[in-house]
Design goal:
Layout lengths: L2 H12 L4 E5 L2 H11 L5 E4 L3 H5 L2 H7 L3 E4 L6 H10 L5 E5 L2 E3 L3 E6 L3 H8 L3 E7 L3 E2 L2 H19 L5 H5 L14 E5 L8 E6 L6
Parallel strand pairs: 1-10, 2-3, 2-4, 4-7, 5-8, 7-10
Antiparallel strand pairs: 5-6, 6-9
The structure holds iron/sulfur cluster.
Length: 205
């Protein structure tokens, strides 16, 4: 990512109480996570292609962390329980559908557990994004979320709303709709509770 753009992004998020951490690779970020989160801590996971590509849940579990990841559930009921439990962990790790250089974090959620955790869940939140998730403005970030991330996430989760075929959002009222919460995080009340980790790689969608 171009240095001037990165510095502008860092400055805009800093003015909104969100610290930006920059990593050359996802492996370096993984080292940072393991160095920073005390061993044995409880860690909630927001389901994300980005986190899955890093194999974070499995590695942290192996390293002695108490990982709460709904994708470990054996049933729908257990998945709901894990989503609720992850709101009360010490740390929360998640991806994001888009961020903007002007200092916004944008997500669309199906059930809302991930955005709830980001906004008023655990005391420590790391939001992990690859450079493919960065747009210049809030409007562009929302367009990305609706026309790129949501259709691909719907397909990944096994739903079939119209955007899966059309590759764009038509604001459907399908029973298969995956977009119930469009959330823009514009700042944090508690300084640096939520940190944004930017990785110089394409990650997730
Ligand atoms: S509102 Fe419907 S068409 Fe639009 S992205 Fe969501 S699921 Fe797809």
């Amino acid at each position: 990512m171009n240095k001037k753009k990165l510095n502008k992004l860092i400055k805009n998020f800093k003015s909104r109480n969100i610290e930006v951490l920059h990593f050359e690779t996802s492996d370096r970020l993984k080292e940072y996570i393991k160095e920073t989160i005390p061993e044995g801590s409880s860690v909630g996971i927001g389901n994300s292609k980005t986190l899955k590509s890093m194999n974070l849940s499995k590695e942290l579990s192996k390293d002695g962390y108490s990982v709460i990841d709904k994708t470990f559930a054996q049933s729908k009921e257990e998945s709901v329980k894990l989503k609720k439990k992850s709101l009360f962990t010490e740390w929360y790790l998640t991806g994001s559908n888009a961020i903007s250089v002007d200092g916004k974090i944008v997500n669309i959620d199906h059930s809302g557990n991930r955005v709830a955790a980001m906004i008023y869940g655990p005391d420590n939140v790391l939001v992990i994004v690859g450079i493919n998730k960065i747009e210049d403005t809030l409007n562009e970030a929302i367009l990305r979320v609706k026309n790129v991330a949501a259709p691909l996430n719907a397909k990944r989760a096994g739903y079939n709303p119209p955007c899966v075929e059309l590759n764009k959002c038509i604001d459907c009222d399908s029973k298969e709709r995956v977009c119930n919460y469009l959330v823009v995080i514009e700042g944090q009340m508690e300084k640096d509770r939520l940190k944004l980790c930017i990785v110089e790689e394409e990650m997730g969608f």
